[in-house]
Design a protein that fits this description.
The protein is α/β, with parallel strands linked by helices. It has one domain: Metallo-beta-lactamase, Chain A (4-Layer Sandwich), CATH 3.60.15.10. The chain has a 7-stranded mixed beta sheet. Strands 7-8-9-10-11-12-13 form a 7-stranded mixed beta sheet. Helix 8 packs parallel to helix 9. The longest helix is centred in the C-terminal third of the chain and has 11 residues.
Length: 289
């Protein structure tokens, strides 16, 4: 994986654009052990990572395991939601010194990023929406998580709109507005409340997780997904960051299938140690065309 210091720009002819009608997404792993999602906005093979909580070696291995390595072979940028250890692996510091690419995050996280080893030459703090080369518009949305929060991202390219939100204590009105009319929604469904309350975790940890600045419960997640899929545009619903101690994939699947039966066939639940299938994302009108 390699890249340049500045976010690259791809120049496409009008003819070639017609054949680049899909984005490709693969959640390489998602849990308290590490989070990373690969997204390519066209068929050029260049991709971004949303979070780098898996080591570079694990990222490469997960891409091969998913059968995605043919479509994802050049890393162009890393987007960080925040700097918790499961979203930023220190092993990336050495990788980026050898093969620098931009590391994009909200300015509120910049100081912490430097302290945790993100090379200053790679750091790209942002305050608002911007364009990533010629391929995508990027909108960061601040969401509540611990002291300085986390960041959700909306990516809009010519043929798909993708929303990614994890590590948020509650769903804000700003997030609901920013995530309108998506083609793919990836959202946290961290814990089952009953399992959380019965767990052996200290009460202080339970309070942090459930107190509105920690993580989303299954119930909160399905309610957010219900609102965000109501327009009927979402074709892929991916659930992120399930707690291994306080959640179960079958509990989550049963809840979402009962509450959102229209999304049952397209529901994908991420796993800690294996990638999701490679998801091809495009707008309905693009698919019909």
């Amino acid at each position: 994986m390699h890249g340049s210091h500045q976010p690259p720009t791809i120049h496409l002819s009008q003819q070639s654009r017609r054949f680049r009608m899909s984005a490709f997404v693969c959640v390489l792993g998602s849990s308290s052990r590490g989070n990373a999602t690969a997204i390519s906005f066209d068929d050029s093979g260049r991709f971004i990572l949303v979070d780098a909580g898996l080591t570079p070696k694990r990222v490469r291995g997960a891409l091969v395991e998913a059968g995605a390595s043919a479509r994802f072979h050049t890393l162009r940028a890393i987007f960080l939601t925040h700097l918790d250890r499961d979203h930023w692996s220190p092993s990336w510091a050495k990788q980026l010194q050898c093969s620098p690419v931009p590391v994009i995050l909200r300015r509120a996280h910049a100081e912490q990023a430097i302290a945790l080893g993100v090379p200053a030459a790679c750091l790209r703090p942002i305050d608002g929406a911007f364009r990533l080369g010629e391929t995508a518009e990027v909108r960061p949305i601040a969401v509540p998580h611990d002291e300085i929060g986390s960041t959700a991202f909306r990516f809009d390219c010519d043929h798909a709109s993708i929303g990614h939100a994890t590590d948020l204590g509650h769903v804000t009105a700003e997030l609901l507005e920013a995530f309108r009319d998506l083609d793919m929604l990836s959202i946290e469904s961290n814990y089952d409340e009953a399992l959380q309350r019965r767990s052996s975790r200290p009460e202080s940890i339970k309070e942090r997780i459930m107190g509105g600045r920690g993580h989303l419960s299954n119930e909160q997640s399905v309610e957010a997904a219900r609102l965000l899929t109501a327009s009927g545009t979402v074709r892929h619903l991916v659930l992120l960051h399930l707690s291994q101690e306080c959640n179960r994939p079958q509990i989550v699947r049963d809840l979402f299938c009962a509450r959102l039966p229209a999304m049952a066939e397209s529901l994908v639940i991420s796993r800690p140690n294996e990638p999701t299938p490679l998801l091809q994302v495009r707008r309905r009108e693009a698919a019909v065309a």
